[in-house]
Amino acid sequence: MSGKNSSFAADLANAIDTQSDLPARPARLATGVLAGRGNRLADLASGSLVNRVVELVDPARCRMWPGHNRDYASLSEERCHDLIESLKAQGKQEMPALVRRLPGDPDHEFEVISGARRHWSVSWLRSHNYADFRFLIEIRDLTDEEAFRLSDLENRARVDISDFERARDYLRALDEYYGGKQGAMAERLKVSGSWMSRYLDLARLPPSILAAFASPHDLGIKHVTMLKPLLKPADRRARVERAATELAARRGAGEGGPFSPPEVIRYLKAAADAPKKSGSPKKSGSGSVIANANGMPVLRLDRQSKKSVTLTLLPRDGASRADVQTAFNEVLDRHWPAD
């Protein structure tokens, strides 16, 4: 053994001997520390406490933050199916939800800033034969504005939150946190002004327009660029809103109609221009279009000669079956030889 190693070994032996000569500590001094550590180890072993800021709790102890950007009421087993199946497969929640403590509420201890789908899914599992599931949370100390930015940052890249939910959240935050200053809000969120404008335009669509769609959650910011021009001037907007209301009523009565956003937008575009007299043709590409009394396209006359007339039905542009029958009669009156 080298002299350096011999010296180290001697120092180590002396340290051990010195420690053994020290008087034993009173047992009562260790009781509090060891008991506290034992309790913490028991919590860790039981799974109720993961670490100082991450805990597993009963989801019933948590409520949604009013500023949460997800429409919690619209969540369902169908919308959360992928997450529910993932939780079942993993046997636990891998990613904690972000929460803050909620003083003064006798029914809830935490407020969920980000993680509504996780909260809904764990709650659903607990009520469907998975009573042992608990909600994994990470506790943060946040102001409302900080909570808004954190929630937005976490959810911005998610495909399971709709553009409409995000747009509505931005519109609320604009006045609540940024004094109505769109530029200041865009700068704080590190996004472009035009990007922010499209979301705010989506949130500001009239309720009558939103009702024309099967669900406002089907709308994206790409659709708002097609809808916004239909709302000016006032007379055009009035026709579009009237058509949207009629479409919503038809769907509510079970009469069907266009459902996908592109189909609804085509329907509203057809109503935007002043209505033409029934049966009056208007040019559309290579043929002329016969519209109903509200200006909705019904038939297109593609080609006509002395011996034949070629028609195309337009069933997706908003007209009813009765409109088609009326238009056919008008075509017959115009082109069928008199008896």
Strand count, sense and closure of the main sheet? 5 strands, mixed
- Tell me the structural class: alpha+beta
Helical residues, percent = 40-55%
Radius of gyration: 33 Å
Beta-strand share of residues: 5-15%
Going across the major beta sheet, what is the strand order?
A: 1-5-3-4-2
Order of helices and strands: HHEEHEEHEHHHHHHHHEEEEH
Q: What's the overall average pLDDT, rounded?
A: 80
Counting DSSP H or I runs of 4 or more residues, the number of helices is 13
Count of extended strands:
9
Q: What are the segments in which pLDDT stays under 50 over at least 5 consecutive residues? A: 8-38, 278-286
Which shape, going by the Cα principal axes? elongated
Give the N-to-C terminal Cα separation.
126 Å
